[in-house]
Amino acid sequence: MVKAGTVCHDETFVPDAILRVTAQNQTTSCLPSKSTVLVNGTSPGPELRLVEGVTYWIRVYNDMPEANLTMHWHGLSMAVSPFADGTPQASQWPIPPLHFFDYEIKPEVGMAGTYFYHSHVGFQAVSAAGPLIVDDCNGPPYKYDEERIIFIQDTFTGNDSTIEAGLSHNPLKWSGEAQAILVNGQGGGSSNGTACNSTLSSLDIEPGKTYRFRFIGATALTFASLAIEGHNSLTVIEADGAYTQPYNTSFLQIATGQRYSVLLTTKPASENTHYFMQLESRERPTVTRGFAVLNYGTPQPPSIFYPPAKPVMTLPNTTLGFLDYALRPHPMYEDDYPSAQDVTRRITMTVHQRITGPTIWVENNYNWTETFPQEPYLVSLYKSDGIGFPSMDRALANNGLDPVTRAFPAQIGEVLEIVIQNTGADAGGLDAHPFHAHGAHYWDLGSGNGTYNSTLNELKLAGAQPVKRDTTMLYRYALTTGNGTQMGWRAWRLKVTQPGVWMIHCHILQHMIMGMQAVWVMGNSSEVLGKVPSPEVEGYLTYGGDVYGKDEV
Description:
Elements: E1 17-26, E2 34-39, E3 48-51, E4 56-62, E5 72-74, E6 99-105, E7 113-118, E8 129-135, E9 146-155, H1 160-167, E10 180-183, E11 189-191, E12 194-196, E13 202-205, E14 210-217, E15 223-228, E16 234-239, E17 242-249, E18 252-254, E19 259-265, E20 274-282, E21 288-296, E22 345-354, E23 360-363, H2 377-383, H3 392-396, E24 407-410, E25 415-423, E26 433-437, E27 442-448, H4 454-461, E28 468-469, E29 471-474, E30 486-495, E31 500-506, H5 509-513, E32 517-522, H6 525-529, E33 548-550
Parallel strand pairs: 1-4, 3-8, 9-14, 13-21, 22-25, 24-32
Antiparallel strand pairs: 1-2, 4-6, 5-7, 6-33, 7-8, 9-10, 11-12, 11-21, 14-19, 15-18, 15-20, 16-17, 16-19, 20-21, 22-23, 25-30, 26-29, 26-31, 27-28, 27-30, 31-32
Keywords: Copper, Metal-binding, Oxidoreductase
Pfam families: Cu-oxidase, Cu-oxidase_2, Cu-oxidase_3
GO molecular function: copper ion binding; oxidoreductase activity
């Protein structure tokens, strides 16, 4: 990829990459053909490959005639380009139909790793997504021969608009469970016992080599447990774009939004020509099972593989706290980790499902959807015509949240401890939630049952530096409990260094649509609004403004 040399976006401007998003009928796995949002005609979309420390311009065309679009660069901090985070109703207006938008992306040095891009509008990310790899400017700290991407998705019976409308309906019309787990766009297996004999993705490998497998959790709902037949030594070397010290495991748990790199050394002389990778959903009322294939050698013509008649392995049930307190940063990437004594404020985000009226998810009693506010929060701040900056006084009186703006304020220089607290729903149920933070990555402090106890958790950390993450699991410790009972927490530590409007949300698409999102405004007026001065900012402040090009093709 060629480095962009200009920011003058006239008719001579050539972006570093182009993504064209369309809606067209497609048959996926064993499901009937339905309208599917695709990127450059496929799902997943094409791999984007960047180098840390280099600025790129990615042009995203919305070729859909009736739907809005954004593109979010999941896991990358967009601090240098606040209108390019891709979050509608938070950082930017969506791209109108038949328009395009040029996203500026500059991965920071030290953020080489595995990421992905996806739409942040409605349910589009179930298919409108693709891998994004940031390469090390000086080479990775681990040696391997080749790498492979394992892009994990799921798919559903209904189309996007039907599912989205049902989730906002009163009473709730649930999306249904995932009908298939896909690897690199292909998948066969079973859903709730019903078999699907669709073709499988093949990962072609050679004997006696070390591979870096980049696992990307791009599912909408599925929390996947997976392992590889005959290959029970997986060495984790990266989590969410951060290199770790090597950690050996025989299986992985990957929630939507999470990414891991593992090293796998293939057999010196394989007794079999292929081995199955088996994936299963966890924390759902039914099990969806999928497969992919590790294919030793590349026979001509390529072999076509189908799912086995029955599972080839017994995968573990949910491992609560998987890799918590186990991963450590690679020595080359250790950072200035703040101690408990450095923490200036602890904020608890209490998650609850409310069923009085429409079924919604709330954080500290408030939900966040694409209909609130009426214009993107950052746009309102620039225009001073709608929601203003959240009040720190109101927030301090309401456990960190300003109820007027429904936003969490934070000051540059603060060291926050953010605790996400799971509670029993109005109807008594409990769910597990993968929580994702936009902006700067946080140090993950672990998880546990009940309520958070900082003193006890510091003993578990034992003075060691935890890894930085951007997506971690809020587990459930029972299927049901009393309404409002606190049962399960996840704790983060964050240095507030990047001014902006950032989302923190559950990454299950259904839960996001039902309101399980929160906005954080980090920094004061001069810090947030000084990043893009007038008049350069004007084109961003109107839906379809002049920074959104009209596609004449």
